[in-house]
Amino acid sequence: MTIANRVIDPALARQLYRKSEMLKRKRMGPPAAIESFPRVTKTLTGLWRYSEGLKYLEELIMVEGGRQRTGFPVAAQEELIFLHQLLIEQHRILVLRGQKIGVKPPPGTKFTLGYKNTR
Fold this sequence. Notes:
Layout: H1 10-28, H2 38-47, H3 51-61, H4 74-96
């Protein structure tokens, strides 16, 4: 039995690709509200297993006295609070297992809290 080596029509290939991408997006559901803030998402994923990640989330959720901030939409705030609770639980589990939580941020990150200590 001979199989012909045919190249698929480019127009048909594009149509199939678009259809598969549409089905993937439909299966995945809507993106999380926090994903509309790429800098926050990138910083948070880089600091997730470090103690600085918890500090970063706390700074995003709470406003220090005297500081003005626009804030996040309600859906994004709810996700930040959920992530904060999740990270606290993950750190607690790591401690119970005897694993260490990284104190310093990973090499190559330029994370600083939004304010500098002026002392």
